[in-house]
Design goal:
The chain is α/β, with parallel strands linked by helices. It has eleven helices and nine strands. Helices cover 51% and strands 19% of the residues. The chain is globular, with a radius of gyration of 20 Å. The N terminus is likely disordered. Bound molecules: ligand C2E and calcium ion (CA) (3 copies). One calcium ion binds next to strand 6.
């Protein structure tokens, strides 16, 4: 037992040190990535009930020179703790707006883009000023931008957050609550918030056709959201069966591999050009 205990301790310290140094390496690499602009945005289409394009979600990609593609699920949480998320997010917002302008100039339509916001970004005192500046310099009409925030943003500094949400509404920028259902908050708080959309988390959609509980939750979210005048997006729709079920539940907008995967701008141009009018 003593032997085992020591091994476990060694393993633990070793693993721990590894994680810390790994994080330091990643942090340095992130700094270089920011300076060298190693990031890209991919766009995933969102489709409405008629099968028409309702908009796209901008998703960050980091192409590391040696390590290859690094998932945002891995580097965004780190960038949040180091504050590096700020320059990365500002770059992403700017790029998303520019890319939508480029689609419009090519006659592909005024596509609405949803950009993910980090809590840190949302809480900054100059957040709204930066946003206005970006819309001004890119020329993107505010109606074409929407922002995705998670429930956590609203529980941290609820009052400040609600003021910011009202300002966004007066600017005609849409706001979606992302990963809805995974937080601890209830639906009731939604009735006081100036938001336009809820996005049901992928984990519920995943289990939709296997679990009565998840099916009940999804149905409940959709019907309550509709009573509150909100639109509902289902994310992570992967099967025809899930899609049909969601159509039956009156879900408004669908996003997932079944419909389209995230893609670079050039592929999105082709995707849009081939959609039936
Ligand atoms: P999210 O906002 O929930 O984004 C949806 C994620 O689900 C994306 O992962 C997307 O590629 C993936 N996805 C979409 N459809 C399907 C499907 O049918 N099946 C499966 N298995 N996955 C699907 P991705 O691109 O890896 O992004 C992960 C997370 O990183 C995002 O989750 C978001 O929280 C964060 N993120 C991405 N881009 C940004 C950004 O620009 N800023 C910030 N702050 N966070 C971002
Ligand atoms: Ca999102
Ligand atoms: Ca989401
Ligand atoms: Ca999610």
């Amino acid at each position: 037992a003593k032997q085992q205990g020591r091994n476990a301790y060694e393993w633990f310290t070793h693993a721990f040190t590894d994680t810390v140094s790994e994080r330091m390496v990643l942090r340095n690499d992130l700094q270089e990535a920011i300076e060298r602009e190693e990031f890209a945005l991919h766009y995933q289409p969102l489709m409405n009930r008629e099968g028409k394009l309702a908009g796209v979600e901008a998703l960050l990609r980091w192409e590391h020179p040696d390590k290859g593609f690094i998932s945002p699920a891995r580097f965004i949480p780190l960038a949040e703790t180091t504050g590096q998320i700020i320059p990365i997010s500002e770059w992403a917002l700017q790029r998303a707006c520019q890319d939508m302008q480029s689609l419009a100039q090519q006659g592909l339509g005024k596509i609405r883009v949803a950009v993910n916001l980090s809590p840190l970004q949302f809480q900054r005192s100059n957040f709204l000023a930066t946003l206005r500046q970006t819309l001004l310099t890119t020329g993107l009409p505010a109606e074409q931008l929407s922002l995705e925030l998670t429930e956590g943003i609203l529980t941290d500094n609820a009052e400040g957050a609600i003021d910011t949400l009202h300002a966004l509404r007066s600017m005609h920028i849409g706001v979606s609550i992302d990963d809805f259902g995974t937080g601890y908050s209830s639906l009731s708080y939604l009735k006081d918030l100036p938001i336009s959309t809820v996005k049901i988390d992928r984990s519920f959609i995943n289990e939709l056709t296997n679990s009565y509980d998840d099916a009940a939750i999804v149905q409940g979210i959709i019907s309550m959201a509709h009573h509150l005048g909100l639109k509902v997006v289902a994310e992570g729709v992967e099967t025809e069966e899930q899609y049909q079920r969601l159509l039956g539940y009156q879900c408004d907008i669908f996003q997932g591999y079944l419909l389209a995967k995230p893609m670079p701008l050039e592929a999105l141009e082709t995707f849009i050009a081939h959609l039936s009018p």
